[in-house]
Amino acid sequence: MDIEKLWEILYKERKTASLQELPEDFSEEVREYIEKLKDEKGEADEKRMELVEDEIRNARMKVEDIIRRRIGKIVKIASSGMKTLPKGMLEEEERIFEGVKSHVEEGKERIFALMLGEKEGESEGKSEKKNDETAEQTSKTAESISVKNRNEELHIVRVLEDMPTFMGTDGRIYKVKKEDVIMLPKTNAEILCKRGVAVRFEGKAKKMAGVSTG
Q1: Are residues 159 and 99 in the same domain?
Q2: pTM above 0.70, yes or no
Q3: Does the pLDDT of residue 206 top 70, yes or no?
Q4: 146: in domain
């Protein structure tokens, strides 16, 4: 990945109404590219440092524009009543599509209920049933993730900055803030350390008294 490739992707998103199909590892490629620039900045002289900083800002702006345009298209497609997932979406984009589609369908049911004089209880019953099904599916997904990763070793890290709540590869929800010392699945720990938002506190561990697990 480089700035020219990002510009090419952004240009296609601007010129077409449909989603272009991105590589499955697009997010990883962008992350590695930005991290490479940060490493280069740390080793550059003052003149070169300014050029690298400009490239980092430029890359971030292009990535943000790509994401914004793609989300706009996804919302439009999801609200159109399309049942199947469009091709070319990233995993996180698929979640956005499903979420928007679900909200649109629920809203449509409520409007129909009002227009057709359906009793409030009947409408609420359908909505509650749909919510229960969604909750059950979410629970099954989390359980599947947890089972799949139950043998993954844990690593202890110290968090260097506040970060949003996230789901670990073990299916658990982690709420962490700056200076927290926490045990995370190896995969999550490596990602956070690689991004520079956490550092390894000690070695890997399965259990440790007094250390938060989220």
Answers
A1: no
A2: no
A3: no
A4: no
191 membership: H or E segment, kind and range: helix 186-195
| Structural domains of the chain, count | 2
The secondary structure element, H or E, covering residue 202 is strand 198-204
pLDDT exceeds 80 at position 30: yes
| 133-140 contacts, C-beta under 8 A, 24 or more apart | 134/102
100 and 188 both lie in a single domain: no
**What sign has the CA pseudo-torsion 144, 147, 153, 154?**
positive
Q: Answer yes or no: is 53 within a domain.
A: yes
Residue 123 included in any domain = no
Burial-class residue 176 by CB neighbours within 10 Å (0-12, 13-18, 19+).
Answer: buried
- Tens-digit pLDDT profile for residues 3-22: 888 888 888 888 888 888 88
Whole domain around residue 192: which residue ranges?
154-204
For residue 197, the domain's CATH number is: 3.40.5.50
What is the rounded CA–CA span in Å between residue 112 and residue 122?
12
- Residue type for 82, please? M
Q: Is residue 64 part of a domain?
A: yes
Of the candidates 117, 146, 181, which is a domain's last residue? 117
pLDDT single digits (tens) 91-109: 788 888 888 888 878 887 8
Backbone angles phi, psi at 7, to 5 degrees: -65, -40
The residue count of the chain comes to 214
Q: Kindly state the percentage of the chain with pLDDT values over 90.
A: 0
